[in-house]
Specification:
By secondary structure, the chain is of the alpha+beta class. It folds into 2 domains: 31-53 and 102-158, OB fold (Dihydrolipoamide Acetyltransferase, E2P); 57-99, no CATH class. 32% of the residues lie in helices and 34% in strands. The protein is built from 3 helices and 5 strands; from the N terminus they run αβααββββ. Helix 2 (57-72) runs antiparallel to helix 3. The protein is rod-shaped, with a radius of gyration of 27 Å. The termini are far apart. Residues 61-98 form the Glycine zipper 2TM domain. InterPro entries: Bact_OM_lipoprot/Surf_antigen, Gly_zipper_2TM_dom. Keywords: Membrane, Signal.
């Protein structure tokens, strides 16, 4: 029993030791593949709701079952103790599973229609959706640059 508990604690510690990194960091230099210049034709603030499931619900259910089994094992004797342990495991797992909840997260985005500066070819328009940045609000007729990063992502910034 102690080895199972020790193994579980070690595994949980290992899983939570990894830190999540952001996909876009403002204070980091990244290689740029291409930069195009243009004008904002339209800008629209939109939002997207995401349902985030509890990633730890399996571990919570396991922990609830483990605690319920330990508590159930304290009662009865012989086959009664076995039944109490099994019932405690089932009830503890069920209670822990019912308590795990999903969250709704609202993500603010901005949808931009960009008219590229015309060259010898025809003028092209691109629609880009990116994270809303309250310190960089876009308006119609704003001069912008479309930055293509080497990882395939695109970022729109104002020309200053």
């Amino acid at each position: 029993m102690k080895s199972l508990l020790l193994t579980s604690i070690t595994l949980i510690t290992f899983l939570f030791s990894f830190a999540a990194t952001a996909g876009y960091e403002r204070n980091k230099a990244v290689p740029v593949e291409q930069v195009l210049f243009g004008t904002v034709v339209s800008a629209r603030n939109i939002s997207q709701e995401e349902l985030i499931e509890d990633k730890n619900s399996g571990w919570k259910t396991f922990g609830g079952a483990l605690i319920g089994g330990v508590i159930g094992n304290q009662f009865g004797g012989g086959s009664g103790r076995t039944i109490a342990t099994v019932l405690g495991t089932l009830i503890g797992g069920r209670i822990a599973n019912n308590n795990s909840q999903a969250q709704i997260i609202v993500i603010n985005l901005v949808e931009l229609m960009i008219q590229l500066d015309c060259n010898e070819q025809q003028c092209q328009q691109y629609m880009v959706i990116q994270d809303y940045d309250p310190q960089m609000v876009f308006h119609k007729q704003d001069a912008v640059r479309m930055v293509y990063l080497t990882d395939g992502s695109v970022r729109i910034d104002k020309q200053f």
